[in-house]
Each structure stands twice: as structure tokens, then as C-alpha cells.
Amino acid sequence: MTLSDSSHGAKAPEPAESVWMAMTNLPDEASAARVARAVLEARVAACVNRLAPCQSEYWWQGQLEQAQEWPLLIKTTQGQYAALEAVIRAEHPYDVPELIAWPLAAGLPAYLGWVRAEATGAPGQP
After folding, report:
1. All domains of the chain in start order, with CATH
2. By 3-state DSSP, what share of the chain in percent is helix, strand and coil, each rounded to 5?
3. What is the pLDDT along the chain (126 residues), one digit of tens a residue?
């Protein structure tokens, strides 16, 4: 291929936006439901799984603590992460909520496409 062969206006397809999994924990079932709904209504995630409560042990303000918490697994995109973080900060009852996220290495292409299509950040959509 010569330089002139590559200049016919054909562009390489843009890579698909990265799908991320985020996680946070809430102190009770009601707040877990409220935060999950707020995230979905803001359209910053396609899906939120509210998991069964678990026992958490952690350091907080110099003390070793133990609490029952309700985990949320949140499917979003890299582009919606900042907006997701803003919703979590606004709705979460903890002073310093756990919010961690990681990119998915693989997944069913149709599912990943669905996450990208639904996590639009456009709350006006049905």
C-alpha cells in the first residue's frame, strides 16, 4: 500500500465506548433502592443490581467498624462515569461513599451494545 492508496477518505471505525462496572454499598435496603432508582432515572447507567446484604468491616475515623450493607452493581460507560459519580455523591447518605469502577475486559457484544445505548445521560428518555 502506498501513501496515495490510504488517502481515499476511508476512515477506520471509531472504537466502541468502554463499558464499566461500578460498585457502591448502602446502609439499608431503602437507601439502596433510592440510589439505584436515581442512577437509572438520570440515565447514567443501563442496569443496577441490588444485591443481598453483606457484612462489611472497615476502618473509619480511627476505629474498626462493622456494618451490614447493601451492594449495588452498576453497569455504565466510561463516558457516563463522572455523571454517575455526581448522582452517587448527591444521593448517597455516607459522608465518603464507596464508589469504585473498572472497565470490562469482555462481554457478550449485544449486551455491551445495550449498555452503551441505554446509559445515555439523557433523563428525558422513557
Report:
1. 18-118 (3.30.70.120)
2. 35, 30, 35
3. 444 444 455 554 456 899 999 999 999 999 999 999 999 999 999 999 999 999 999 999 999 999 999 999 999 999 999 999 999 999 999 999 999 999 999 999 999 999 999 999 987 655
What pTM was computed for the model?
0.86
CA distances (Å), 90 to each of 6, 86, 110, in order? Answer: 49, 6, 32
All residues at 6 or more sequence positions from 80 whose CB lies less than 8 Å from its CB, including other chains: 44, 45, 119, 120, 121
DSSP code for 43: T
